[in-house]
## 1
Amino acid sequence: MDLTPSPEESALRAEVRAWLHENLPWEYGKGLPPRFDTLDEEVAFGREWQAKLAGGGWVGVTWPTEYGGRGLGPVEAYIITEELARARAPELVGRIGINLVGPTMLAHGTPEQKARWLDQILSAGEIWCQLFSEPGAGSDLASVRTRAEKVDGGWLLNGQKVWTSYAQFADWGVCLARTDPAVVKQKGISYLVVDMRSEGVEVRPLRQITDETEFNEVFFNDVFIPEDRILGPENNGWHVANSTLSHERGSNPRQLVIHAQLIDELLRLAQQEGVYDDHRIQQKLAEAFVEVRLFQLHNWRTISRLSKGLEPGPQGSMNKLWWSEMSKRMHDTVMAVLGSAAPLWRGASENPGDGTWQRSWLYYQASSIWAGTNEIQRNVIGEKVLGLPREPKPAARR
Ligand SMILES: Cc1cc2nc3c(=O)[nH]c(=O)nc-3n(C[C@H](O)[C@H](O)[C@H](O)COP(=O)(O)OP(=O)(O)OC[C@H]3O[C@@H](n4cnc5c(N)ncnc54)[C@H](O)[C@@H]3O)c2cc1C
C-alpha cells in the first residue's frame, strides 16, 4: 500500500481546506461549533450547513455526477471527510440519507426514484431515517414483525420500530417490513419507503441517558404505502437491507480525526487539572496515542481495499470494534483526568467543560451498540476473518 498522496489528492485537500476557510460559520482552526440548547436548533443549523456544503460540492462526492455527486473515488472521499472533521464541521444532519439511503438507492432504485429523492438527500432539503430495528429484532434483524399487507395500489403498514434516530425530523424513512409471513424469515421482507408525514405514523421520542431525545419509537397504524415506494423487488428486501448495512461499517476518517483531536484536548485538560505528571495518567495518555495510531492503520487498510475496487468486507468489523472500544477507553481516561469532577453535570461549579466531557462519556457508551453490537462484530471477525467455527444458532424461527 503506497500512502504517498498524489499531486491531485494534495490539490483536493488544499481545495477543501480553502473552501472551509471561506465558508465555515466560525473562524477556521480557532472557533468551535456553536453549542445548542435544543435538538431542534441543532437540526435547523445542520440543515443550513449541509445545504451550504452541498452547494460547494462537498456532499455525496462519490455519487455519479448525473445525481449531483462528483464521481470521486474512496480516497478522495476520505480526504474530504478528514478535512471537514479537522475543521470541526458538525456531522451531517442528513447523514442517514447520505451514508445509507443514497448509496442503497443508487444501487437498487429506479430512475424515477433517484430523480425524485437523491437531490434532496444531498442538500438536506429532506431528512431520512432508518426504520430497521424493532423491540424483538435488533442484532437478529431478519426477525422483523412489522407487516405490510398488499392492498389495491400498494400496501398497508402496521407495526412498531424502535431506536429510530432523527425520526421526529425525518420526511422519509426506509423500512423493513414483512410482506410474506409464510416463507423463511429472510425471504419474506420488503424494503419500503415511508412518508413520515403520512396518516397513521406516530413518532414518540425516547429520552436518553444524555438527557437528549435523538432516537424514537415509531408506530405504524394502517399506513398506506403506494406501490412505487419500494426499493428492489417485493420480498427481496433482505438483500437490499444488506446493501444499506454494508455502508455502516468500513473506514471512518471522521472518528479518527475526532479521537486524534481528543488526545490534544486531553493533554490540555491534564495540564489544566494538574495531573499531567501523574504517571498513571501518562500511561493512559500514551496508550490512547498508540490506539489512535493503530486505528489510523485500520482505516488505511480499508481505504486501500476500497481504492482497488474491493468491498470493505468482514475486516470492516475490525474498524468498528476497534474505534468503539478505543473511544470508550479514552473517555474513561477523560474521567480519570477530571477526578472528583467526573460525576458532575451541567451547571455545577468547578466542572471543567461544564458537562461537555461527561456528556461525551455517556454518548460514546452507545458506540458499541449502534451499527451492529461489538459482540456481533466479534462473531463476524471470528467466523469470517479468522475462520473459526460458527456460533451455535438458536433453533430456526419463521
Ligand atoms: C445511538 C443509537 C442509534 C440507533 N439508531 C438506529 C436507527 O436509526 N435505526 C435503527 O433501525 N436502529 C438504530 N439503532 C439500533 C441498533 O441498530 C440496535 O440497538 C442494535 O442492532 C442492537 O440491537 P438490540 O438493541 O435489539 O439488541 P439485541 O440484539 O437484543 O442484543 C442484546 C445483547 O445481546 C447480544 N447479542 C445478540 N445477538 C448475539 C449473538 N448472536 N452473539 C453474541 N451476542 C449477541 C448483543 O451484542 C447485546 O449485547 C440505534 C442504536 C443506538 C444505540
## 2
Amino acid sequence: MYSVGTLSPFQSPTVKLQRLFESHEIEVFAKLDLLQLSGSTKERTANSLIESLLKAGTLEPGGMIVESTSGNLGIALARQSAVRGIRFVAVVDENANRSAIDIMRAYGAVIDVVTTPADGNKLAARRRRVQHLLTEHPGAVTTNQYGSPDNPDAHFRTTMPEFMEATDGRLDMLFVATSTTGTLLGCQRYLRQHHQETTLVAVDAVGSVLFGGESGPRRFPGLGAGIVPELALQADPDVVCQIEEIDMVRGCRKLARREGILAGASTGAIVTAIEQLLPQVQAGSRIGFLVHDSGVPYL
Ligand SMILES: Cc1ncc(COP(=O)(O)O)c(C=O)c1O
C-alpha cells in the first residue's frame, strides 16, 4: 500500500471543541489521532521506527521485528509489518487489552505474553523477554521505542508541524500523555527549536515513576511507566500532571458526552489535567491536546 494524492496517510484532522469547557473563555483544539489507520498516534511512531531500521539496513525486507508493547505501538507495528511483509512478534503483559491482541493477530502478528514478575514490574519483564527473543532469532531486531530517537522524531517531523499549521501557529498550552515520552519529546523539540512560548504539559498516571512519581498499580495501558525509559531523561515539560484512574474515566466520559469523541484513558487523563489547571489559565488562551487513541477497546 502506498499513498496517492496530496495528503500523507498519517495526517489527522484537528477540531476546535465548543462544549468541553464552555463556561471558560478559552479555545480548545484536539488533534484526532484516534483516526489513524491503526487507531492511535503510534501509527506515526511505528512508521518512523521501521523506516529508519530499513534505511540503516539493520532490518531487511522480509525480516523480523520483536517489540515490547502495551498495545498501541504493537497494533501499529503489526499493521506496518503486514504492509511491508515483515514478521512481527509482540511482547505483551497480562494487562494488555484483549482487543489489542486480537487486532495484532488479525494483522498476522505473533503474540508473546509475559507473566507479571514477583516485583510487579511488567515493563522490565517485557524488556528482558525481548532481549531473550533477539538472541534466539539471529537477524531479528527490536525497534527500541523506549530509547530510539526515531520515536520522538516522528512527532517532531509530523505531529507538531500538522498541529501548528491547523492552529495558525499559536498554542499557549499543549497537553501530551506520556509513557515512553517519545510524543512529548518530539513536541518539546519542535516547540523549543521554533522558539514557541507554548507551555508544555506532560500528563502522567498516578503510580507511574516517569517524573519522580511513586510506583503503584496502574490498570490502563498506554499511560505512565514502571521504570524510567532512556528517552524520558531528556523530557523537560513545563508542568507535570499525575492523574488518578477514576479521573481518566471521568475525562473520557466528559469528552464523549460533550464533544462526541470517544477516546482512550490517556486522553481522558488529559481532559482532567486541563480541568485541574483551568483556574491558572488566562482568559483567551489557546489550548491543544492530542487524542492519542480511541476509547472503544477500553469499554
Ligand atoms: C493511548 C496512548 N496515549 C499516550 C501514549 C504515550 O505515548 P509515548 O509513548 O510517546 O509517551 C501511549 C503510548 O503507548 C498510548 O498508547
